[in-house]
Amino acid sequence: SECEGDGLVNRKVIILGDSETGKTSLLIRFDQDKYTEGGLSATVGVGYANKIMVVEDAKVKLQIWDTAGQERFRSITRAYYRDAEALLLVYDITNRKSFSNIKGWLTEISELAKENVILLLIGNKLDLENERQVSVEEGQKIAEDSGAIFTEASAKSGEHVEHAFLSLARELLKTS
Ligand code: GDP
Ligand code: MG
Question: What is the similarity comment for this entry (predicted)?
Answer without folding.
Answer: Belongs to the small GTPase superfamily. Rab family.
